């Protein structure tokens, strides 16, 4: 029995060592997991910070580009005015012709709706005139009929008068 007892403490010793190694291994593993998580969190926050920085830079660039576009548009308008002035200096008659054409175009735009209004009013006038003439004609016919009736009535009255007093 002694050899088994001797082996027992050895196995117990081995068992303790295995337990210690296992617990060290587990604590090392959990420590590694924590370190991995920390690294993941750090990497994620670094990634988010980088994304935010990229987005901020994109917005800054967009604002600068829009501001530049605004300046370009202003300068384009200014150049167009300068070009018109230069053309005016080169040929004063041409400038006057251009101004007159612009006025004519402007008046054309004003005249078009007025012409449409005139046409509508002419149609209304013609319709009203036609209705007026029809009513006037009907009135004349009625007056003529009234005169005939009154004329016949006065002839019948005279005839009746002569018949009664005869």
TrEMBL record:
Pfam families annotated for this entry? Transcrip_act
Domain of life, source organism = Eukaryota
Coiled-coil boundaries: 118-149
Keywords associated with the record: Coiled coil
For the keyword rRNA-binding, the answer is no
Which residue intervals make up region (Disordered)? 1-36
Spell out the PANTHER family in the cross-references: RAB6-INTERACTING GOLGIN, RAB6-INTERACTING PROTEIN GORAB
* Protein's recorded name: RAB6-interacting golgin
